[in-house]
Amino acid sequence: MPGPAATGTVGSVIEMTDLTKRYGAKPAVDGLTCTVRPGHVTGFLGPNGAGKSTTLRLILGLNAPTSGTVTVSGKVFRDLDRGLRHAGGLLDAGDVHPGRNGWDHLQALARTNDIPRRRVAQVLDEVGLAGAAKRRIGGYSLGMRQRLGIAAALLGDPPVLLFDEPLNGLDPEGVLWVRTLFRRLAAEGRTVLVSSHLMTEMEHTADRLIVIGRGRLIADEPVADFAARSTGTSVQVRTPHPAAVRDLLAAAGAEVTTEDAETLRVTGLPASRISELAFEARLLLHEVTTRTASLEAAFMELTAASVEYAAKAEHAASGKSGAAR
Ligand SMILES: Nc1ncnc2c1ncn2[C@@H]1O[C@H](COP(=O)(O)OP(=O)(O)OP(=O)(O)O)[C@@H](O)[C@H]1O
């Protein structure tokens, strides 16, 4: 695999400063300031309508900001010559001419960006579409169109790569392939930004997270730090004396719920203090286990105030085991 393009720079960053985009009075992106660094897969997360796609379009110069700036490798993307060599993006897999075949689509992109023709065959092979290259895109499945979009992003061998919901439509093998690809691209020193509205998708894909809600920055940190910020951490206690232990821990200020005949879930006290209290009261415990909140629960909690489109009767969190406490 060749390194980043001769024209590209390993170590290119995406820099957003007070980036704002309004549609009418409503901000889709609202004062976003953050840096996306090379060598990482950065998950770009937010509920539906949070402003992720708009931000990606602003980065690639497909829309102009209302105010603020965004640069790629220190420059506004539109000012970069032969753009696909500097940054590649999968933004809308459906935004391709259905009558064209995959080969011609990539060939046209290569021509306008001064990319050698041999790259077309290379990227088609890389994404597993070599056999379908001469078929009309209109006959491609959603997963095949996603693969073609990824091929287009890779075409210029750029140091910066953006992917908007790239896992949509991919089968489990495709999901695994994409995750491995993203990690490899980051390991090569590229900047990889991947959007999703599902934390579960990012949990195994990203090592850093940028989370937005209603266009505003909510978190910008390593995945592990994000999970640790959640208040969803609890302690599971198994005991043959649930009623007595429950009273004891509640008296010490903990919140205790009953899971089953022998199991309690405790929040507000660490495992060590729970063990001490039970020992002093001569109450036997069979298990004391700290349960760290799932990333999904942390995500729900942090974005709860900024969810724009939620079902009325049941909150979007329903059914997610991590959110139920
Ligand atoms: N061209 C447009 N005209 C008017 N409003 C727009 C336009 N594009 C986006 N918006 C609005 O901006 C907000 C952010 O939309 P955006 O598509 O960026 O969110 P998103 O985080 O990508 O959402 P999703 O996860 O649902 O794809 C939404 O309220 C959307 O309705």
UniProtKB/TrEMBL annotation:
<keyword id="KW-0813">Transport</keyword>
<dbReference type="InterPro" id="IPR003439">
    <property type="entry name" value="ABC_transporter-like_ATP-bd"/>
</dbReference>
<feature type="domain" description="ABC transporter">
    <location>
        <begin position="14"/>
        <end position="239"/>
    </location>
</feature>
<dbReference type="InterPro" id="IPR003593">
    <property type="entry name" value="AAA+_ATPase"/>
</dbReference>
<protein>
    <submittedName>
        <fullName>ATP-binding cassette domain-containing protein</fullName>
    </submittedName>
</protein>
<dbReference type="GO" id="GO:0005524">
    <property type="term" value="F:ATP binding"/>
</dbReference>
<keyword id="KW-0067">ATP-binding</keyword>
<dbReference type="Pfam" id="PF00005">
    <property type="entry name" value="ABC_tran"/>
</dbReference>
<dbReference type="InterPro" id="IPR027417">
    <property type="entry name" value="P-loop_NTPase"/>
</dbReference>
<dbReference type="InterPro" id="IPR017871">
    <property type="entry name" value="ABC_transporter-like_CS"/>
</dbReference>
<comment type="similarity">
    <text>Belongs to the ABC transporter superfamily.</text>
</comment>
<keyword id="KW-0547">Nucleotide-binding</keyword>
